[in-house]
Amino acid sequence: MRLLKQLWFQVLAGMVIGAALGWLDPGLGAQMKPFGDGFIALVRMIIGPVIFCTVVHGVAGMNDMRRVGRVALKALVYFELVTTLALALALLAVTLLKPGAGMNVDLHRLDVHAVAGYVAQAHQQSVPDFLLHIIPTTFVSAFVQGEVLQVLLVSVLTAFALTALGEKGRPMVDAIESIAQLIFKIVGFIMWTAPIGAFGAIAFTVGRFGAGSLLALGTLLIEFYAVCLLFVIVVLGLIAWRAGVNIFRLMGAIREELLIVAATTSSETVLPRLMQKLKDLGCEESVVGLVIPTGYSFNLDGTCLYLATAAVFLAQATNTPLGIGRQLGLMAVLLLTSKGAAGVAGAAFVVLAATLGSTGAIPVASIALILGIHRLMAEALTFVNVMGNAVATIVVARWENAVDAGRLKAAVGFGRLS
Question: Domain 3-412 is classified in which CATH homologous superfamily?
Answer without folding.
Answer: Sodium:dicarboxylate symporter (1.10.3860.10)
